[in-house]
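Field reference: sequence -> structure
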Amino acid sequence: MEKLISLKSLDLSNNKLKHIPEGSFVNLRALQMLNLARNEISTVKTRSFTHLPALRKVDLSDNQMKSFPKLMFDASPLLQELK
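Structure field:
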């Protein structure tokens, strides 16, 4: 994803994703909206969402997650909405 540095919105919903590896979005520094809804995500690592300083909205609804790592969005100070 290194050529997508200006990407502002990414929709990965309905893809049967099971987990989000650390550093998955490392080069998406302009990303503001990330939709991961309706997948099969059961685990997310603390550093899965690092390097996303512009992130404002994340949709993780309709997955199999029971909890979030405490510092999961620490590197996203502009985050306004988490579903």
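Note: Residues 16 and 39 are 5 Å apart (CA to CA).
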